[in-house]
Design goal:
The chain is an alpha/beta fold and 298 residues long. It has one domain. It has a six-stranded mixed sheet with strand order 1-8-7-6-5-4. The chain has a two-stranded antiparallel sheet with strand order 2-3. A hairpin with a 6-residue loop joins strand 6 and strand 7.
Length: 298
Amino acid sequence: MATFPRERLFVHPLLWTARHLSLLRCQFFDDGVITVPPVTPSSPADTMLADGGSADEPPGDTSLARALATSSRPGPKGYCLSTLVRELKCYRYQVDFYYARRAVAPLPCGPFSQPRESPLHPPPPAQLVYLDLSEIARYREIKVAGPGHVWATILPKTRLEDPYIAAVLIAIAQEQRLHGKGENKKSKKQDEIYPTDATTEATSASILSMMLITRPKDAKWLYIYTSKVPSAFLERLDHPSRPPAQASSGLEMAIYRRWLAFKPYETLSQRLVTVLRDARAGKYCASDGEPVQPSCRP
């Protein structure tokens, strides 16, 4: 922080800029289009995300997928998505960002988690978050009321690489770690929902965060962000004044963005479930910190 004495860096994550991403060593990687094999009645994807999920597409999924793609309003989009991925529930409207082991900023978003054990139990930690880019702009407008030059310093050059996306992904990892959901602490039910490969089963060195993004006027693509946030990275935020134990390894955060086509609407729900399961198994983000090379871009 002392390197940039004239810049105000201790700000709400909605006001983060590329400078924050650089200081935190966060980097976005575009990994192209996700191609999901056709789903057949015998496919494992038909079991959906949780025990008891129907193997048949419930009536209305096609209409919901079309509305998710074509609606320009974030509210209806969020409802359609929460219904399509019905095995995960949205109980809250924010996740908390932690700094120096204290919750310092609520981050508005749509966090999804497994159903709570009972109405008396608090919601489980978020596994997935949804945001529309117009919502980020609206939240930012509420947070800041300043002259035009202030907005010019805040607005990201690439909206799909908004620093707020990185902040929310960090907050998801912090919440999972707070609730003991590291990769080696999954419950049996979690393992059934998201089978894990052998390379990650025995370690809690990273925590997977996932995020779905839509754009207001983009009726073609759903953007899926994944990041395995290293524990060493989170430790830096827990103890900002403490020198890192490691020289460089594990202190970076790589965020991978992939593109899932809305069409065909008839299979969007099943394809999305398949992608989320594959992401949990490590298919769509590198586990060794090396960026996945982009494939084909739309």
